[in-house]
Amino acid sequence: MQFTGPLLEPRAREAREQTPHHTPQFSVCTWTHERTTRTEIDRLSRDVHFISGLMAHKVPFWVAELGPDVDPFVLHLFAALAEKERALISPRTRQALAAAKARGIALGSPELHVARQSALASIKAEADRHAANILPVIREAQKAGATSLRQVAEALNARGVTTARGGQWHATSVSNVLERAWRTARC
Known about the structure:
The protein is elongated and about 80 Å long. 60% of the residues lie in helices and 3% in strands. It contains 7 helices and 2 strands, in the order ααβαβαααα.
């Protein structure tokens, strides 16, 4: 088993506190004696302590940029450079954003409120459509003798009908559908 996918880096504070033998990917590599491969050392981590911990715990990893027979001293140097780069990224980004703002460039999405309204309308329309589709099944369950919301939910679950998100029905979810159908009929 060899892992070659991206390793998600934890936040800086978590990275400093994390030990290599507690990282699931490296635990498997240590047990199976297989290497994990990264193209660059900063794709492995931008924390010297983390990388030196991997080396100290004899976790096999290979950095393609440096080759298979790289000296541990060179690995430490490149890890230190990656850590320094991590420290420089945030101030550089802040400075670039401040410069762009000073030039009059609008940061962020100027149409964010429009996108939110559109997304909300889409979500509501989908919920209304689902309520309209499920309402006849609820009415059928009520005609069959289900008198409480819980009984209706049990009837829907027994028929294999799922909620809009694919879950099981509960009294509250039946109540929400009935309320939505009532509001839609009133409007």
